[in-house]
Amino acid sequence: MQTLRLMLLTKEPPLADSKLSEATPAEATETVTEHTVEHGTTTGISNNKLLMWAFLGSECLLFGALISTYLLYKERFNDFAANLAPFEQDGRNIGPRFGGEDGEGVFDIPFTSISSFILLGSSLTMVLALSAIRRSEYRSFRIWTLTTAALGSVFIAGQIYEFTEFVEKGLGYSTNIFGSAFFTLTGFHGVHVSIGIVMLLATYIMHKQGRLNSDKAETVEIVGLYWHFVDVVWILIFTIVYLFPQ
Amino acid sequence: MAITEDRPLALEAGAVTKVAARPLGALTRPQSDVGWASWFTTVDHKKIGIMYGVGSLFFFLFGGVEALMIRIQLAAPDGQFLSESLYNQVFTMHGVTMVFLVIMPMAAAFANYLLPLQVGARDVAFPRLNAFSFWCWLAGAIFLNTSWFLGGAPAGGWFAYAPNTSVTFAPGSGMDFYAIGLQIVGIASLVSAINLIVTVLNMRAPGMSLLKMPVLTWMLLVTQFLLLFAVPVITIALFLLTFDRSFGANFFNVEQGGSPLLWQHLFWIFGHPEVYILILPAFGIISEVIPTFSRKPIFGYPFMVGSGIAIGFMGWGVWAHHMFVSGVGEISVAAFSLSTMFIAVPTGVKILNWLATMWGGRLRFNTPMLFACGVIAMFTIGGLSGVTHAVAPSDTQQTDTYYIVAHFHYVIFGGSLLGMFSGFYFWWPKVFGYKLSEKWGKINFWLMLIGFNMTFGPMHVLGLQGMARRHQSYAKEDGFGFWNGIVSAGAFVIAFGTLAFLINIWLSARSAKRNPVEVGPDPWDARSLEWSTASPTPVHNFDVEPTVEFQDDWWHRKWGENEEGKIVRKAYPADIAQDGSATDVHLPSPSYWPLVLSLSLPVIGYSVIYTFWLMIPAGALFLAGFLGWALEPADDPEAAHGHADHGHDDDHDADASADAADEGASVG
Ligand code: HEM
Ligand SMILES: [Cu+2]
Fold first, then answer.
1. Is any atom of ligand 1 closer than 6 Å to the C-beta of B415?
2. CA-proximal residue: ligand 1, atom 14 (nearest)
3. ipTM given for this complex
4. At the top level of CATH, which class does the domain A47-243 belong to?
5. What are the b/e assignments for B482-509, b being 16+ CB within 10 Å?
6. Mind telling me how many Å the CA of A71 is from chain B's nearest CA?
C-alpha cells in the first residue's frame, strides 16, 4: 500500500476534463433526489414490466422474420404453382389460390374471421380482468381471467380444426413452400397464444392461493401486455395471410 | 490547496452480510455460498461472470487447436494432414466456436461481472435468469461439440448457407447439431440480454444518469440491444433449417420454389449486427483502460457514446455487403456499398477519440494498456480492409478469398480478442485480489501481437493472389507455398502467446498464495465505481449503495481542482474506498433450478435428431426445472416475517409471474 501511495504521489496529476467539473453541486443533488423518489428502480418502471417490454421488442423481430418469409414465399408460390405443368400437380400446387378439389384455395374466410373476432374479444376481457383486480373486485377478476383463457382456447381449437381441414384438402406441412410457410407462421402464433393461456391460468391459480391481489395487479398487467401483443400480431397475420392471399 | 468538498469522500461500512435462505413452502433453497457445490447453484453475478470467463477460455483452447489443425494442413502444398471431409468440419467448428463459444461468452463474462458494479448495483435484475443463461450457454456449447463423436461435426461453414446445408447436400446430423446447438446458445444470449438491459436501465445508483455511465457500460448496453433484436432473426433462420431437415419443410427446397437467398438474408441480418456484438464490448473495455493509463478522462465522452449508439443503429443497414456476389441486384449492391462506407465513420470517430485521450496524457504502458494500443492499431488495419470490400467491384474480386479471412481476423482477433485480454489484465486484481505478472504479461502481449501479424498479415497477399478460402489444399504450381508457411508458423507463435497467458495465471496465482501482496481496492488509480469497493469484490459488492455526482465519480473522489485550476489529490483509494466489511445485506439465495431447466434443452435437441422418445426425459426435466423455479420460496425480507401466504407490498417477489421472476438483491 505504501509503495502504491508513493508511486501515485510522484506522478504529476492528470488533466481535468473541464466539462465534467462544471456540474455544480446543486444540479447534482437534484438528479439524486429525482432518482431516489421513484420507487426503487431508476426508470420508475418495475423490473418485471421492463423485462416484458424488452422481450416483446425481441418478439417483434421474431414475427418480423417469419412474416417476411411468408410474404416472400407467397409470391414465389403463386408464380411457381401457376407454371406447374398439369401432370406435375399431384397436390403440390394447393395453396391460397390454386388447387383443392374444386380449384378453390384452402382458406375458409368466414370461419377464420369468427375465430379472429373471438381472439380480439379476449383482449377486451383481459382489460376487464385487469381493471377488476385493480379495484379489488376479485369475483369479476376471476370471471374475466377465465373468460380470457377460454376465448384463447376457443381460438386454438379453431386453429387445430383449420389445420386438420387443410391437411384433409391435401395441404400438408411438406406439400409445398406455401404449406411450410403457412403452418410455420400460424403455428408459431398458436404456440404464443397457448403460452399466454398458461400464464393466465397461472395468475388465476396464484390468486386462488392468495398470492395475487390488488397490490400485485401489475402482474396481471404484464400478462396483459403479452396477451395484447399476441393479439396485435394476429391482426397482422390475418390481414396478410387470409385477407390478401394473392 | 483548498478543495471544497461538501460530501464525505469516504464510503461507509457496516455489519455482517448474510445470504438469505429460508425453508419455506414445499421446496427449500440451497444455502451454501462457498465450496465447489456452490458454483452449481450460485446466482451471484460475479461467480457467473467468472464461470463465463473460464468457459470461454476453455473453448478458446478448443478453437485454437482447431485453428492449428487447419494451419498444419495448409502449411505446405498438397497437405495430407486432414481429409477433405474432416477439413470442412474443422474450419466450420473453428469459426462457430470462436464466435459463439469464445468471444460472445467472454464478453458476457465482463458484462456479468462489471455491469452491476459499474452502475452501483448489488446484482443483476434477475439473478436466477442470469444463472440460467450461463448454464444454457454451456449446455448448448457441449451439445454442439458432442457432434464430433456422433457421426461428425457440422461442415457447412460458420454461416451455414442453405440449401448447401439441407439434407440432400449435408446428410448426417452435423448440421442438426449446428442448428439446434446455436438455438440453445441463442436462448442464453437473449435471456441474458434482457436481464442486463433491465439491470442497466433500472438499477443504477442514485445520481447515475445515463450520461454519467462509464463508456464500457454504454457499449455493453448497446451490445445487449443488438442481441435483443438480432438473436430472434437467427432463431427463425435456424428453426426454418431444422424444420426443413427434420420435419420435411420446403423453405430451402429449390425444386419446390424455395429461395436460396432467404437463408443468406436472414443470416446476415443477424450476422452483421453480430460483428458489432463481438467488437463493442472490446471497444468499451479499452475505453476504460486508455483513460486510466493516460491519466486523463476519456476524450469526447458524448461522441464516444454517440458513435457507439450510431454503430448500433447503422449496423442494421449493411448486411447485404456479405452478398455482393449473390445476385441481389444492382440497386441493392449500390445501396449497401454506400451504407457500408458510412458505417466506417463512427468507427473512425472512436479511434480518433482514443488517440486524443492518449495525446498529452501521462502514459503508463502496463500490460492492459499494451493490449489496448494493440487493439487500436490492429483494428484500424481491419477497418481499412473492410472499407476496401465495401467497394462492390473490388469485393467481387476479394470475396471468398483469404483477403476476407485477413479482414475479419484483424477486427475480431486484433480488435475483440486483444481487447478482452486487455480487460483480463486490467480487472484481474479486482476479481481475484492479485495482479497478473507484468513480465509474463509482456511476453504474452508481444508473442500474440507478432504471431498475429505473421498469421493474418500475409493472408492479405494470399487473398489478392487469388487463394480461395475453405479449400482443403492447394497445388505447388499455385505458388501459395511461401506465405502459407509463414502463416502457419505465425499460428504457432500465437499458440505460444496463449501458453504464456496460462503460465502467467498459474505463476501469479501461486506467488499470490505464497506471499500475498495487498493490491488494495484501486491498484491502477482507475475511474469507475467497481474500484471503490474492496478487491476481490465482496459478495454484496457495496457496503452502502454508492451515490454518484459526476461521470467518473470515483475519480472525482480522489482528485480535485485547487484554486489555480490544477488537479490535485484529495484522497487515497485505501482511505476512502468501502472496505467490504458489509452491512446486513440480503442477497438472493442460490437455486438448483436454473441448472435443471437448462439441462432439458440439449435433451430436447437429441430428441429432435434421434428419437421422439427422448422427449419424455426432456419434458420431465423441463417441468421439474420450471415448477421448481416457480414454486421455490422467494427470498425477500418481507417473506421472512411469515406472511409469505399473502401478497407482500414490496417489489421483490420471486413468483410474481412464472416467466418474470424478479429476485433483485435488496437491502434489509
Ligand atoms: C470499418 C468497419 C467494417 C467494414 C466497412 C466491414 C466490411 C466488411 C465487408 C464488406 C465484408 C464482406 C466481404 C465479403 O465477404 O466479400 C466483411 C466481412 C466480414 N467482416 Fe467486416 N467490416 C467492418 C468491421 C468488422 C468488424 C468490427 C467485425 C467483427 C468484429 C467484422 C467481421 C467480419 C466478418 C466475420 C466477415 C466475414 C464473414 C464471412 O464471410 O465469414 N467486420 N466486412
Ligand atoms: Cu458485415
1. yes
2. B399
3. 0.90
4. mainly alpha
5. ebbbbbbebbbbbbebbebbeebbeebe
6. 11
